[in-house]
Design goal:
This protein is an all-alpha fold. Helix content is 86%, strand content 0%. The protein has one domain (6-174). The relative contact order is 0.19.
């Protein structure tokens, strides 16, 4: 018979969420520094934004379009980890659901169910299993939504950075 405590499964889901939230916060902070540095004109020389601006200053329009696509890929690739972590929260919640159902169904024994003395134990195990199933699903789904909202904020900032950098590169190339 499988036994699992609700607290252990929930802590795993919460730990993954906290890791994702910390990663998202760090990426938002880094993105904010890049946006501020772009508007103020001080970014480190090894920053992808600076490298892009240096490359497009000496390029024709076709080359700039290719480099803009490359910049989009590079900047969006930095944030995809947060989306994957958010998706993992849903799967962890579903794994908890399956474990909960296994716990609940492991108590069902046709021979024991006919005995009135065993019914209370069967019902208690069913309730424990359903508790694990429903709570892990709820925690996983709720934290998924929370991290997804943060991911959307990060995505919006990344799109803003991409648009500003490409616009600045085009203005510099046209000058």
């Amino acid at each position: 018979m499988i036994t699992a405590r609700l607290v252990e499964l929930t802590l795993i889901i919460v730990a993954v969420f906290l890791y994702g939230l910390a990663a998202c916060g760090w990426k938002i902070w880094r993105l904010t520094l890049e946006l501020n540095g772009l508007s103020e004109g001080h970014l480190p020389s090894n920053n992808p934004v600076v490298l892009y601006l240096d490359r497009v200053a000496k390029s024709d329009s076709q080359s700039r379009a290719l480099q803009a696509g490359s910049l989009r890929l590079e900047l969006t690739d930095r944030i995809v980890t947060v989306r994957h972590i958010a998706n993992a929260l849903i799967f962890l919640g579903l794994i908890g659901t399956v474990i909960g159902f296994i716990i609940a169904l492991s108590a069902v024994d046709p021979n024991a169910a006919s005995d009135a003395e065993n019914v209370a134990g069967v019902i208690a195990t069913l309730i424990d299993g359903m508790s694990v199933a429903l709570n892990t699903t709820l925690v996983g789904a709720t934290l998924y939504l929370w991290l997804t909202v943060n991911y959307r904020i990060l995505t919006s900032g990344t799109v803003t950075l991409i648009a500003e950098v490409i616009g600045l590169g085009e203005r510099r190339a046209s000058a």
